[in-house]
Amino acid sequence: MRLRTFLAAGLLALGAGAAFAGASSSQLEAYQPDPALRTAPTSELETRVRRSCAVVQARMQNAAETSFERPCGCYAKTTLRALDASEIEAYRSTGYFNDSARTKALNAIDSCKLRRPV
């Protein structure tokens, strides 16, 4: 339930629904992603992932979003570089990471010294 609350808060705060590693695909099936994701350049995907990370981390740790700019930038870059073409395409169509991408994103959370949202 706590995970669902964090996910909903992060998605609502963004309005566009950027991905975050703690999301479970089954919990987000009804979510409608921003159609702009389909054609957004990789830099925009990275911005969305970084923003989502900052929102979720700030709420989890009761801190300002700006305090997570650097670690969430690390998380977004590391995650997107680790994804293969099919995982990026899945993110573009759903607005969240699929199961194989989620594993890579969780590794990025750990390497960037962020708190896991689970």
Q: Summed up, what is this model?
A:
The chain is mostly helical. It has helices at 2-14, 42-61, 69-82, 85-94, 99-111.
Q: Gyration radius, to the nearest Å?
A: 13 Å
Main β-sheet, in a few words?
none
Q: Order of SSEs, N→C?
A: HHHHH
Helicity, as a percent range: 55-70%
Number of strands: 0
Total helices: the number is: 5
Task: Give a description of the structure.
The protein has 5 helices and no strands. The longest helix has 20 residues. The radius of gyration is 13 Å and the shape is globular. The N terminus is likely disordered.
Q: What descriptive keywords fit this protein?
A:
5 helices, mainly alpha, 118 residues, 0% strand, disordered N terminus
What is the topology?
Layout: H1 2-14, H2 42-61, H3 69-82, H4 85-94, H5 99-111
